[in-house]
Amino acid sequence: MTLKTLRLSAGTGKVLSLLDIRSDALPTTGYIMAGDTCMNSCAFCAQSSSLGGAGGNDLSRISWPPYPYEVVMEALKGAGSKGLKRLCVQCLMDPPLLSELPRLVRDLKEASNLPLSLSISPLSSEFLKKLKEAGADRVGIALDAASSDTFERVKGKGVGNPQSFDTVMEGLLRAVKVFGPGNVSTHIIVGLGETDSQVLEVLKWSGDNGIIVSLFALTKVRGGPDLGPPPPIGRYRALQAVRHLVMELGIVDGISTDGSGKLVSIPDIAAIDRADWKRAFETRGCPDCNRPYYNERPGGTIYNHPLPLREEQATIALMEVAKYVNGS
Q1: Buried-most residue among 113, 167, 176, 238 (CB within 10 A)?
Q2: How far, in Å, CA of 194 to CA of 198, rounded?
C-alpha cells in the first residue's frame, strides 16, 4: 500500500486554507485520518465496516474530506504559524496502513515541525518503538467502553472484532513502557451503558499507570445501531469533574457511588483547584487538543468546551454537577 490520500477534519482543512467553512472555534491540533477502510465493526463508529461505507467521510459528528498526500504535506508547511500546535493521526484498522505509518510520521514531522500523536490499535512493543523513532511523541489507544461487558457488546466479539477489554489494557501498558508515563492516552465514551463507578475505576487504573483519559459523549451514527441517547449533561459534567480530580489532582478520597454505581459524593473541585478547575469542562486529551464540535452541534449542548469557559458557563457547569450528584 502506498498512501495516496489523507483525510483532514473539516476544521483542520479550514486552518490549512484547504476548505472554506464557518466556525467560531478552530482546532489547535491538526486532525488527520489515515487508511482506506476500517476492518473493525465498532457499533458507535461512523467508519465501522458494518456500515459498508455508509459513514462516508464522517467520524463522530465531523466531516473528514480527502486530499492528495502531497497537497496535505504542502499545506502543513508553516502550520505552527497558522494556529496548529500539534498533529494527531487517526489510524483506521487497515492492515496495509501499518507498514506505511513510520514513513507517514516522518513526512508529517518534516512538513509541519510539530509534535505528533497517533491514535492506534494495540501494537507490539517493537512496532511502537519504530513509531517513536520516526517522530511520534504520544500514542492513544481507545478503550471506548468502561467495562469488559460493555466493550464486548459494542467493540469486541459481540460485533465481530478480535480485541477485548483486557487486550486493549495490555496494549496501553506496553505503550507506556515505550513512550513513558503521561505520553499515552485512552478515552471513554460516556453513554454506552456503563456505570459511574466503572468510569471511576478506569480513571483510577489509568492514573496509577501513567495513562491519560479523555471523555467523549455518545454521538448518534447515521445508519448505525441505536445505542441510546447521549448522556444527560449533568452526569457528563459530574464525570468530567471526577476526571479532573483523579487525573489532574490525584484525588480519589471523597468520591463515592451507591449500590447502582451512581456518583453520590465528590469533592468540590472549585474549592480545591481555585486556579484551573474550569478546565475540567474543556476538551481534555493530548496537549493542545480541543476537538471543536466533535460531540455536539454549534448552538446545542456542549459536552467538551473547545474554548475556555466564560464565568456563566462555569457556574452552570458546577450547578449541573451538584444537581446530578445530589440526585435532584
Answers
A1: 238
A2: 6
Separation of alpha carbons 265 and 271, rounded Å: 15
Q: Where do the domains of the chain lie? A: 5-325
Which cell goes with 317? 457547569
Residues 6 or more apart whose Cβ sits within 8 Å of residue 70: none
Look at residue 59 and give its three-state secondary structure. Answer: strand
CA distance linking residue 170 with residue 141, whole number of Å:
10
* Helical axes 125-134 vs 165-179, angle rounded to 10°: 50
State how far the Cα of 171 lies from the Cα of 125, in Å rounded to an integer.
9
What backbone torsions phi and psi does residue 300 show, to the nearest 5 degrees?
Answer: -95, -165
Residue type present at position 16: L
Look at residues 175, 231, 169 and name the one whose alpha carbon lies nearest to residue 205: 169
Phi/psi class of residue 62: alpha, beta or left (left: φ > 0; alpha: ψ in -120 to 50)?
A: beta
Nearest CA-CA partner of 215 in 197, 188, 236: 188
| Residues 124-175: tens digit of each pLDDT | 999 999 999 999 999 999 999 999 999 999 999 999 999 999 999 999 999 9
pTM value? Answer: 0.94
Specify whether the CB–CB gap between 282 and 305 falls below 8 A. yes
- Closest listed residue to residue 61, CA positions, set 216, 285, 225, 243: 216
CB 102 within 8 A of CB 134: yes
Q: How far apart are CA 186 and CA 285, in angstroms?
A: 9
State whether residue 233 is helix, strand or coil: helix
Query: May I ask the CATH architecture of the domain 5-325?
Result: Alpha-Beta Barrel (3.20)
